[in-house]
Amino acid sequence: MRFGKSRKNGKKSKKSRITVCIIITAAIFAGFSIRLADWQLVQGKSYKSLAAKSTGYTEKTDATRGEIVDRNGVGLVVNTTKYKIVLNKLYIEEDRLDGILLELADILTKTGDARTDSLPISVGSDGSCVYKTSREEDAKKLLTLGFTEYGFKTLIEEGAPVAETINVTGGTVDYVTTHVTEGFSYYVSEEDDIRLSYDIPYSIPAPVEAGDIVGAVSIYVNDTPVGVLELAADQSCERRTQSYYWDRLWKSFTFFITPI
Question: Cα–Cα distance between 192 and 220 in angstroms, integer?
């Protein structure tokens, strides 16, 4: 009897050791999973920005040459101080780059400094943009590039139905469908990422009239919001009354007593 009891105790201790190992292993994997989720989901943007700023790049600089003077110390070939503005895209957000360039161009214009403008477009006296007559071929290439890669595209049509329905509480119908109240077009290329984000409530109270604004859809191009459209109800829905419940009760009663 003692031998059998010791064997039972041995089995129990072995099973408990396995259970402890499983719990420890599961805890370790859970810790790794939580840490990975924190890195990628919670702090993903900050780490991405840090990685972009820590990326190395190479910049070539001209070596300083010595000055050449005559026997009296008068300079024949001397050095002059010049300032160079460098825009490092590693430290500039993409949506701020155009604004920074425009601000820099205004500063150079106010100080009277010359700048090299390689764009075949100039600003007219009335403030409109015109193509330079001396660079017609470059202007033609620019137009061809623009019309080839970009186009005015309808992103969502007027009256487009929405797949998701909205529940109606206290109404004569259980749900209503919706549609987009107006169309939306935008200038995009084939490589742009277009996304529609619908803001639709789970339920709305009765009564509801056809055409009532019950939601909205936001339009994004490359994660940049470009427009918001309203969603309208397709059907009308009245509020439930006592007559509605009596009518439902009568229909159920006649259904059961009607012979088949």
Answer: 10
CB 215 within 8 A of CB 200: yes
pLDDT at 20: 83
pLDDT tens, position by position, 91-133 = 777 778 878 888 888 888 888 887 776 766 666 677 666 666 6
The answer to whether the predicted template modeling score (pTM) of the entire model surpasses 0.90 is: no
List C-alpha distances in Å: 11 to 5, 8, 17, 127.
10, 5, 10, 90
CA distance 138 to 123: 16
